[in-house]
Amino acid sequence: MTSVLQAQALGKKYGSRWALRECTIDIPAGHIVGLVGPNGAGKSTLLKLAGGQLEPTAGGISVLGGRPGSTPAQLAKVGFVAQDTPVYASLTVAEHLRLGARLNPRWDGAMARERIARLGLVPAHRAGKLSGGQRAQLTLTLGLAKRPDLLILDEPAAALDPLARHEFLQHLMEAAAERKLSVVLSSHLVSDLERVCDYLVVLVDSRVQIAGRTDHLLATHYRLTGPRRDPGRLPAGQYVVSARHTDRQSTFVVRAGDPMHDPAWTVSRISLEDLVLAYMDRRTAEHRRVTQEVQG
Question: ABC transporter domain spans which residues (predicted)?
Answer without folding.
Answer: 5-230
